[in-house]
């Protein structure tokens, strides 16, 4: 087994070898551009890691890892168009640098390319990988649609929100791990458990992202603290206030979400106070811990060595170790 940084470096090298611009340039240059904007490469690293966890050389899963990364970035290109987002990882989004039509077409080509990469595997592996990928890709689209629908609804429940983040975020983390298991020909039980490990960890990660957006340290969070509040996003914190807050807390929150001041600092401060006093902040912290514990409990049941469990446990702790 190697370090996370080793797998990341190996994947980035493979990505660069396989993302060269070719004709027509206006189709493939945007693809190369978005794939080389950086990022943690979390999902492909998990595929490589899981392959070696189940006793196969990580190099056998490089094509599947690339498929996961290409699909993830395809979804970002189209999400940025839907959100009219000007920036991605600090750089111009594809539709801003080129145009919307280019973003749509290059994104479509990325989705097709992701499927093509599975053709490098033998028939049974191809079938299993393609089935998992198709299910996951459709769930990601469903999660995105739920997210869009929630913007115009005032009756979103916590249960619905958890479904949305599971589909939009967690299933791709889970699938990345299971793909490693498929390529390594691990047992169905092991594939299922490592999938559930990734699913619970992915949910915990997104809940933590919601929490840190309000209460994180600006020096370590990596994004603007209070961004969700400024955008009036209905996060787990917001929904929990509406579920368990007092009449006054609910009214104050809804009033704050109905305004968009030029200087948002007072709005952010007020809403953070409501999150704290209503118990929504505490609830979110408990939920993060519960989903993280679920992930580690499933990990404990995996039929792999304690040394390998510790590697996955260390990855999980590192992922969830962002500072408040």
TrEMBL record:
InterPro entries: Isoprenoid_synthase_dom_sf, Polyprenyl_synt, Polyprenyl_synt_CS. Keywords: Magnesium, Metal-binding, Transferase. GO terms for biological process: isoprenoid biosynthetic process. Its cofactor is Mg(2+). GO terms for molecular function: metal ion binding; prenyltransferase activity. Belongs to the FPP/GGPP synthase family. This is Polyprenyl synthetase.
